């Protein structure tokens, strides 16, 4: 995991890995009992009570109901791909990946220049996996590929136009309906641009007052009672800076 500006950034591969927890519908070809998954506890400390024993703190992480062909069932994407590669199931594409739904999304993106259409957070990663491993289960797959590319291009253009509008008065950026991969692509660029802009921002009134106070500390002390001590304290404050 990379770091930039003190914050952790995910790589594209890490985001794609996380996206495989998204649920997808399959039509199993085999019968299988209920599956129960385990998950390593977050921030877990590995313990070794005996010389040759290593125990991991585990937590239940969901179940998958019993599979009975041809009844459809919802499973994590990684499990769906596992079965699909072994010809143990067929995948039912999500509604948003249907050609007609993609047509509506593309039309929405083009009609609303100033905002992004609502779309699944991991749409890029999920679509990529399904197109690579389950293209035979997608209706009109060539049309789907073309529509997805057009949607990505339109959304990328909106992002680029938004980044070009940064100026010295920009203090934050609000982005609604961007996907995980799109956010990760621009995070470093956007954060770096904002940091760079701050170097050109005029000093605030509070900073100007502090500067004036520091300047007054360097002037000769007057005969007012206690002024010498005040000037000395201000001088020490300026030196500490």
What does this structure look like?
The protein has 241 residues and is α+β, with helices and mostly antiparallel strands. It contains eight helices and nine strands. The protein has helices spanning 12-19, 77-85, 99-111, 123-133, 141-164, 180-198, 205-217, 227-240; strands at 2-4, 7-9, 23-28, 35-40, 47-50, 53-55, 58-64, 73-76, 89-92. Strand 5 (47-50) and strand 6 form a beta hairpin. Helix 7 (205-217) packs across helix 8 (227-240). The chain is flat. The two termini are 36 Å apart. Mean pLDDT is 76; it is low at 40-60 and 217-226.
Task: Considering the chains and any ligands shown, give keywords for the structure.
two-stranded antiparallel sheet; 241 residues; flat
Short summary of the structure?
The protein is α+β, with helices and mostly antiparallel strands and 241 residues long.
Structural class: alpha+beta
Low-confidence stretches: 40-60, 217-226
What is the CATH topology assignment?
Methane Monooxygenase Hydroxylase, Chain G, domain 1
Determine the number of helices (DSSP H or I, runs of at least 4 residues): 8
Order of helices and strands: EEHEEEEEEHEHHHHHH
Distance between the termini: 36 Å
CATH class: Mainly Alpha
List the helices and strands and how they pair.
Layout: E1 2-4, E2 7-9, H1 12-19, E3 23-28, E4 35-40, E5 47-50, E6 53-55, E7 58-64, E8 73-76, H2 77-85, E9 89-92, H3 99-111, H4 123-133, H5 141-164, H6 180-198, H7 205-217, H8 227-240
Antiparallel strand pairs: 1-2, 3-8, 3-9, 4-7, 5-6
């Amino acid at each position: 995991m990379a770091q930039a500006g003190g914050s952790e950034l995910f790589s594209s591969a890490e985001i794609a890995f996380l996206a495989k927890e998204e649920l997808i519908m399959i039509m199993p070809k085999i019968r299988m009992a209920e599956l129960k998954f385990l998950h390593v506890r977050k921030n877990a400390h590995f313990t070794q009570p005996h010389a040759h024993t290593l125990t991991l703190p585990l937590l239940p992480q969901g179940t998958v109901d019993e599979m009975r062909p041809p009844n459809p069932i919802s499973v994590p994407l990684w499990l769906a791909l596992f079965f699909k590669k072994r010809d143990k199931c067929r995948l039912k594409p999500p509604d948003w990946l249907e050609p007609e739904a993609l047509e509506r999304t593309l039309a929405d993106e083009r009609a609303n220049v100033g905002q992004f259409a609502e779309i699944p957070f991991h749409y890029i990663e999920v679509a990529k996996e399904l197109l690579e491993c389950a293209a035979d289960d997608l209706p009109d797959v060539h049309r789907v590929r073309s529509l997805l590319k057009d949607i990505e291009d339109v959304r990328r253009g909106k992002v680029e136009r938004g980044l070009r509008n940064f100026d010295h008065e920009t203090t934050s950026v609000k982005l609604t309906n961007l996907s995980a991969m799109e956010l990760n692509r621009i995070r470093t660029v956007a954060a770096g641009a904002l940091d760079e802009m701050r170097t050109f921002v005029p000093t605030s009134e509070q900073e100007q007052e502090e500067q004036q106070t520091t300047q007054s500390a360097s002037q000769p002390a007057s005969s007012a009672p206690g002024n010498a001590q005040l000037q000395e304290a201000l001088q020490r404050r300026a030196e500490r800076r």
